[in-house]
Write a structure and sequence with these properties.
Layout lengths: L1 H25 L2 H6 L6 H37 L2 H7 L9 H35 L1 H9 L5 E3 L2 E10 L6 E13 L2 E16 L6 E12 L6 E13 L13 H9 L5 H30 L1 E5 L3 E12 L6 E12 L2 E13 L10 E13 L2 E9 L3 E2 L2 H8 L3 H5 L12 H46 L4 H27 L4 H26 L3
Antiparallel strand pairs: 1-2, 2-3, 3-4, 4-5, 5-6, 7-8, 8-9, 9-10, 10-11, 11-12, 11-13
Length: 524
């Protein structure tokens, strides 16, 4: 009898799994969950094969519940259980096939959610990153072209480099050079060479425009250039890596060490940059107070700054000089800049290694030999931060970087950055906790749902498909709603523990119904 029940329930389960997986996967619901950007038709076909296991993981518990309700309901409608009871068979023994199926589905769902699906989802990133030419071609066919730094580029053809697959050549190119969302120049180029860097978490591109002919929109003057560089530009992500796409082992690793997660690392880079910027400001200010002048140099340009007054903002650390004289040495030539006011600032960057020191002068007179130019405002050539300082900043220990204490009792100038980083770390931990509990609860729910479906099928004699579906849908809906709502609450600050309780409350409710129906309702 148990083999018969298991065989009938297994057939219904398999058919329901295939049907629901096809509807959810091919209908695009799972694809929307992945949140991909633009993909080519070939990539899309490959994606659908990868996404089927995720659809199966989502639909298997519902298919098992439907199979149990339908099979046990049909047996009850045919009075099979009445016959078994009349023969002295303990009716509870006949629930063994439902229990076995529920445990198998729970284990398979847990493995899919925590190991199989995350591995396949991660392969989406490799798939999209590996076909940069198709991505570039698709973007070029749009009316807005493709943006690289200050350039918006349109091209008729693309070619992958023979010797370097990370080099793409755009031919018969038209471009617009933008500045503050306005057109600076328009023109054409014989070709554009783009080089892609895939070494980091995001793909970046840089290159050169070759054989340029430019038109100034204001003067309508035509200018020809042999070559012009395209600044390094990070491409928009086609695949958004999130915590919910990671394997269980990776989630537990980031739970123990949240500073290793990419969002937290970005926050750490910002905090480290803020600390390095303050070191730069303090070093310049201290040197001026000690010597009465300050020297700022790199391999391309050097400045010697003298001034009557020097001040530093207490919070940001920006340096301001009054009645300043600057000697600039660049490419073996020296010029003098005098100004009523000068400001030294380090503009924001992602990392301290990308930072530069910018000097802006106001009401300035620039003297180069016999030539003198007066300007109300001028920004001098930026100076790269020294490698020694970059190494010093990158060498600051994490504990020191996060320590808000100040030995002299002075205000913490990095308080805002530390507060933002702390919020990112807390958010990361809450999200990991929510994802782990969500996956586990959804997998465990199969154990209580399938058993409840079998009991309710007997009680309501659910041989009809619509009756079996209704019996399956209601308890499944309760579990899904509590898990989804609980996950959202777990991710929010202040409601973490109430969210965890809500995640598991649906399973507790269904489990209680299992006990009540098996001990009270089914006996009658």
């Amino acid at each position: 009898m148990q083999r018969y029940i298991f065989r009938e329930m297994g057939k219904t389960f398999l058919l329901a799994s295939v049907g629901l997986t096809g509807v959810l996967g091919l209908g695009g619901g799972v694809l929307n969950m992945i949140e991909l950007g633009e993909v080519t038709p070939g990539q899309f076909a490959h994606l659908m094969l990868i996404l089927l296991p995720l659809s199966a993981a989502l639909t298997m518990p519902l298919a098992a519940l439907f199979g149990a309700a339908s099979t046990y309901g049909r047996l009850s409608a045919d009075n099979e259980f009445v016959a078994c009871r009349s023969s002295g068979i303990n009716i509870h023994v006949l629930f063994l096939p439902a229990i076995v199926l529920s445990v198998v589905v729970a284990c398979v769902t847990f493995v899919f959610f925590n190991f199989v699906v995350p591995g396949m989802v991660m392969s989406l990133d490799t798939l999209v990153r590996s076909d940069l030419q198709s991505m570039i071609e698709q973007r070029l066919h749009r009316s807005r072209g493709i943006s690289f730094g200050d350039y918006r580029i349109f091209a008729d053809n693309t070619m992958v480099g023979d010797s370097d697959p990370d080099t793409i050549e755009l031919q018969r190119v038209a471009f617009v050079e933008m500045k503050d969302e306005s057109w600076e120049r328009i023109g054409t180029a014989r070709k554009v060479l783009l080089r892609f860097d895939r070494s980091g978490p995001k793909v970046a591109a840089s290159g050169e425009l070759i054989g340029l002919t430019c038109l100034d929109p204001d003067t309508l003057a035509t200018i020809e250039f042999g070559q012009q560089s395209v600044a390094r530009n990070v491409l928009p992500e086609q695949f958004l890596l999130k915590l919910k796409f990671l394997k269980l082992g990776e989630l537990l690793h980031y739970w123990r060490n949240p500073t290793a997660w990419q969002d937290v690392r970005e926050g750490l880079d910002k905090l480290r940059f803020a600390a390095g910027r303050l070191i730069v400001y303090d070093g310049i200010y201290d040197e001026f107070l000690r010597r009465g002048e300050v020297a700022i140099t790199d391999t391309n340009v050097g400045y010697t700054i003298r001034a009557d007054t020097c001040g530093q903002s207490p919070r940001e650390g920006i340096i301001e000089f009054g009645n300043v004289v600057i000697e600039e040495t660049k490419s073996g030539r020296t010029r003098t800049v005098t100004a009523k006011r000068a400001i030294i600032e380090v503009p924001r960057a992602d990392r301290i290694g990308e930072a530069s020191i910018v000097i802006e002068v106001y009401d300035a007179r620039l003297s180069d030999g016999d030539a003198t130019i007066e300007k109300p405002k001028e920004q001098l050539t930026p100076v790269c931060v020294s490698p020694d300082l970059i190494e010093r900043v990158n060498g600051i220990a994490l504990g020191v970087l996060l320590d808000a204490g100040s030995p002299d009792g002075s205000p913490d100038r990095l308080a805002e950055e530390r507060l933002q980083l702390g919020a990112v770390i807390d958010t990361t931990v809450r999200k990991i906790r929510a994802v782990v509990n969500e996956r586990t609860a959804f997998s465990v729910s199969a154990c209580v749902l399938v058993l409840l479906g079998a009991v309710m099928g007997i009680v309501f004699r659910g041989s009809h498909v619509l009756t079996a579906f209704g019996i399956s849908f209601v308890p499944m809906l309760v579990v899904i709603v509590t898990i989804v709502m609980g996950k959202q609450l777990t991710q929010n600050p202040g409601t973490t523990w109430s969210g965890l309780v809500l995640i598991w409350s649906g399973i507790v409710i269904v489990g209680s119904l299992d006990v009540w129906t098996l001990t009270r309702v089914l006996r009658r």
